[in-house]
UniProtKB/TrEMBL annotation:
Mode of membrane association: Multi-pass membrane protein
EC numbers on record: 5.1.3.6
Bilayer-crossing regions: 35-54
Compartments, record wording: Golgi apparatus, Golgi stack membrane
Protein name as it appears in the record: UDP-glucuronate 4-epimerase
Enzyme class, broadest EC rank: isomerase
Presence of the UniProt keyword DNA repair in the record: no
Organism: Arachis hypogaea
Signal peptide stretch: none
Keywords, comma-separated and alphabetical: Isomerase, Membrane, NAD, Transmembrane, Transmembrane helix
Amino acid sequence: MLHIDSAPSTPGKVKMEKSSYFFTRGGGARWHYSLAKLTVWSFAFLALILIFFLRSPAPSTITSAADPSRRSLRNYNWGGSAWEKRVRASARARSSNGLTVLVTGAAGFVGTHVSSALKRRGDGVLGIDNFNDYYDPSLKRARQALLERTGVFIVEGDINDEALLRKLFEVVPFTHVMHLAAQAGVRYAMENPGSYVHSNIAGFVNLLEVCKSVNPQPAIVWASSSSVYGLNTKVPFSEKDRTDQPASLYAATKKAGEEIAHTYNHIYGLSLTGLRFFTVYGPWGRPDMAYFFFTKDILKGKQIAIFEAANHGTVARDFTYIDDIVKGCLGALDTAEKSTGSGGKKRGPAQLRVFNLGNTSPVPVSELVSILERLLKVKAKRNIMKLPRNGDVQYTHANISYAQRELGYKPTTDLQSGLKKFVRWYLNYYSDGKKAVE
Ligand SMILES: NC(=O)c1ccc[n+]([C@@H]2O[C@H](COP(=O)([O-])OP(=O)(O)OC[C@H]3O[C@@H](n4cnc5c(N)ncnc54)[C@H](O)[C@@H]3O)[C@@H](O)[C@H]2O)c1
């Protein structure tokens, strides 16, 4: 600190002193003396600059997410004629009336299942995913390999990359976007809030900006979440219930997404359908979700934390099997009307919808553990704990009558049968520490 205080504060000051020595009675020794002094001052000044840069704090994740000029997008390799050829081939529908769908978050749990179902029935599908390391990226790579075998190419990139999205629409006139890319997880929001702003808000807006300006505009189906019901206690949750009391930042970003969707529908005529998924589970699932890490920990003989609410209240979830969710997504895509805008301008009213996609039969988490114990043939070491206030809610239960009516949505898999399929996949995938692709 001492030499910071004694050093000149601006380069101008050094210059001023230097010139005053030049223009006073100059003797040779005096001139040498002033040159030496100037050199010392210059070094001190440079040292000061160095210290300043070394000590300045790195921008926080929130700042960098909020400020586009500072937001760091990893450098992904895309472009070139071979790349465009792959993009076109993947997005080509088998028949002329097939959909051409851009699936964001395609290497994710739901994205992989939806992409593969669309491809199987003959639609053209192109995926995009940034393969972030929120959970083990090797699982995302294994899903990518699975999709590649069915003819789905996943472009590696971020939905915040406007140039990349524009390029994709230039190469393929997508009729639909299935937007599943997001920062998921309720508790992680306290650890890394910036990642939720980056993907769920900035990324969504970037995607909508591109979609509104292309011709023809695609219809967009996107994943909201049951978490928007937050502290709502009226059950079962209906789309008409209040959603203005989110219990986590994750929920707040999903709710923000619903409002943002309203805006782009209202101003630009984009056709937008939001799907509020209720705790999706199944093969190729997400390792950060309870059914997944309970399985891992039970097999390892590790204690698992089972939460209960105040006064020994039951914590329960409306667990929904992945195949049912996929049917709901396809139903939403098939019933989505065309967007009405062109040239970035609205030409008429466009469709705006929000649906619950749940199972309508909540199961206590302790019952989930009992089913896993039976399937794994291992007794769990249960540690009953109070539900912490970090974003989780006590109870979720979907009213699905609207989706039933409009999308023909009808879940058919109960928790016991769905977990059986999950456990079979899990044991196969992680057998002998090897990742066998089913
Ligand atoms: N699984 C559930 O129970 C559940 C419940 C409610 C809502 N949702 C929503 O459904 C969607 C899919 O969820 P999931 O369970 O498949 O999650 P997931 O994390 O497995 O999939 C999301 C994918 O998006 C990718 N991604 C994230 N940010 C991105 C970005 N900026 N650019 C490009 N790719 C990005 C990730 O790498 C990941 O592969 C998400 O929007 C999620 O919020 C899921």
